[in-house]
Amino acid sequence: MSKNIVSKLMVHLILIAVVISMLMPFIWMILTSFKTTTEATQLDPFVLFPAQWRLDAYSEVMRNTNFPILYFNTFVLVAFRVICGLLFSAMAAYAFARLEFPGRDFLFGLVLFQMMIPSQIFIVPQYLMVDSMGMRNTLFALVFPGLVSAFGTFLLRQFFMGLPKSLEESALLDGANVGQTFFSIMLPLAKSGMVALGIFTALFAFKELMWPLIINTQADMATLSSALSKIQGAYTVNYPQLMAASVLSIWPMVVIYAFFQRQFIQGIATTGGKL
User: Fold this and answer.
1) CATH tag, 65-230
2) I want to staple 33 with a disulfide (CB 3.0 to 4.6 A). Which of 48, 72, 80, 244 is the partner?
3) Mind listing the pLDDT tens digit for each residue in 224-252?
4) pTM of the predicted model as reported, rounded to 2 decimal places
């Protein structure tokens, strides 16, 4: 009995230590946003709290950065990538899972091959495609790489393959065509997979940095992540302002996580991935 108590206590202590180590960067970020530049750059590791709680960094960042525009651009990016990614990936996944057509396995192999290649390799051709359409520095340019997701196609294909074929056979006997079967029967049954995919798509779109930084150079077309990377001087970094901007940037996802915590956990458990 005593051994079980000791083992449980050790497990809880380890978990508490892990949680604290993961929360410390966020705590340091929040506390630094209320400090002066001198306090933020001093070398004393035992001074964690600011001597005086100041809002100067927040007021300076909000005056120099157009956060309403950044929020709008970021939310448009997330919304369209989730909607387009779910819709087009679901249609492609259903075709690969259920429909018989020449070259199906070969084309799905190309999808799997794309998942094995680092996404940075596609930045140059995607940039040239957007530039040839004259769509640089637009909201469409932000959404373009996420219109279809190879990972989403693979994930939803596995869901569709796990559904019984008798459902489609019954729909066919009732006179339903392929489109009606997909939208009315198969798509609602893949709801759990689509929720998981939507969560991951939203997270990846929200924190994406390289593509918005390259394709949209105008300040009014930037996202939160790309604008945050530019809040630093040429020779020095104002850490309180940088941390204040970080706090103002992450709160939307914190609020979303607070409301959809169960779906986040289910998404990780469903896909076996990590954030």
Assistant:
1) 1.10.3720.10
2) 244
3) 888 888 776 545 678 888 888 888 888 88
4) 0.81
